[in-house]
Amino acid sequence: MEDIPQSSETPSDIVPTQSKALSAEVEKAARANSVYAPAEARRSGRRVRAESDRRFEIRKDFLESPLSDPNGFERIIGESDLMSINFLDRGKRAAAAVCRIKVPSGGGTWYGTGFLVGSRLLLTNHHVLGTPDEASQCEAEFEYEHDIDGVLREPVRFNLRPHEIFYTNAELDITFVAVTALSEEGVPLDRYGRLPLIPLSGKGIAGEWVTIVQHPGSDPKQIAIRASQIIALDQRAADGINLDNFIHYSTDTEPGSSGAPVFNDQWQVLALHHKAVPAMTESGEQEGAGTKPVWIANEGVRISAIYKLLEKERFETPLAGLVLDRLETSLGLTPMSQHSLSSEILLEADRKPLPPSRWADVKGYNPAFLSERLELAGIYAPQLAEGHIAPLLDGSGYELAYHNFTAVINADRRFPLFTAVNIDGNKLVHPGPRKDTWRRDARIAAEYQSDANFYEKKRGNDSVQFSRGHQVRLLDPCWSKLGDTPEGLAESRLGAEDTFHYTNAAPQVQGYNDVDWGNLEDYLLDKAQTTEKRLTVFTGPIYRDDDPLYGKNRKGGPWKIPLSFWKIAVLQKTPDKIAAAAFIVGQTQYVQALYEAKVFAGLKPYTADEMRKRHIQTTVSAIQRETLLDFSALEPFDAHGSFESTRRTRWINNINDVVI
Asked: Per the database record, which ranges form the DNA/RNA non-specific endonuclease/pyrophosphatase/phosphodiesterase domain (predicted)?
């Protein structure tokens, strides 16, 4: 993105884009969407453009059910403009979180717009608040608006606290800054609520109308209701503009709208307004430059792009982590930074690799353990075809066989792609005291494994530290056909020791192996209606392209850190029938299945207690989509797969909520 022009005069809060190609492409798109086209042709074109938008499918998931919003789907495809009457009440509630930012400067005071997005956290543009020193002189003014009788209210002023949080990025033109809890008159900031930011892209599609709440030209709060239409641009024509970061919508924007929230019909924030797109003359100059510019569209920063930036810097820029903590709290999630790591686990010592001969007769995971045969090769075949799986050194394949479980390693990330363990609940043998001795596995190249250089604090100067998170739980493979005998105990201890390999570890950024998660296997075994208590569990991280980086100064760094984990449990429920249940923990707000199930429908400024543990039960197909693994053999046995769509993904508050 081009640099924002600076001026020695009092800053104007309307900032034009500088791309001639962008202006030309916007004008072309605007003509195609002209309201002067015949109504039928316009409706037909809207539907075609909407359905061809790559975000169309997830956009449908952000809609409320027809019982709550009968015309929601028809509006996004241009076949209706009817709104439920509660649109106005919801808009009033959303607008309360929008404020005017008063910015003193050497040339006089100027103004911008901002809005609350988390607990005492304000979002605006970098060109509105560019430095902590500047922010320390500013005020956020709420309720500067006309009341129902047309009387102009006196604004309620809050000081900013850049010494607490100030995160800014000039390229995306965003600034987050903390706000005081009480106004100068003692009014609590919580009175104005907040606008939770949804991280997934797809909250608005081509042709859809959007609404902007703003303080134009320092004026009292105003609203442009569904006066702006999203424009679909051709990335090839919009040279130099990353359309994954920015969204464009046709409207006139007065000075002062920089930093305003851009809403869809569900009052979900889809963008942060930051620039206006000017019309250009045939000679390539800005039309009306120096007098009265002609504006043909606006440009906003996508909320999904803001999240991607913050996540990328989560572990390397402490302020990015603080901002994400507050955004996650606004979604009802417990911030990851609140999860402390045990000093005992952090001090686990490495040992030299064991000889490969130790596993000469070990078969690992047994595909015939349950009544339905479940082969591993078919599960990881899609990833193998893409070249993402680390091979064994002896050329025998890709599966690391341990006592009662197997690990398959992601070659790019150097952590497990997934693990598979068989559990025989009737033959469990406790291995005795835990021995935290970690090792690499000599059967696979060191370049595909982590080690103490990644986990131990003394090996780097990172502000964040991880523990080694077991993928196969310590006790799961600790069983033996020999039962509770000396020989059975010895076999159990081998299984326990096997779990302490780096090929079974992934960085644990939160306590996802807590009581509810850790006891899942025990709970499911109790659900078996057979004499033999048998369970197979598949586990692994969810790897995303934009996972945050960590440890650039550590050996092998920088590393990409997965923030969500999945588990599929397959129970031998009756002698001839299995049942499967799928779960995700960690950063659940990035899981598309949540939006399909309407878990986030009607987001408003509140905290949802049921979301706090970051545990969801979802469908096997949702896991497939998130991981690109093939679990199609399990779909017929999925406990949630037969539910209606709005119940296929559910929050798990305690272990008794699990359905299988």
From this structure: 401-638
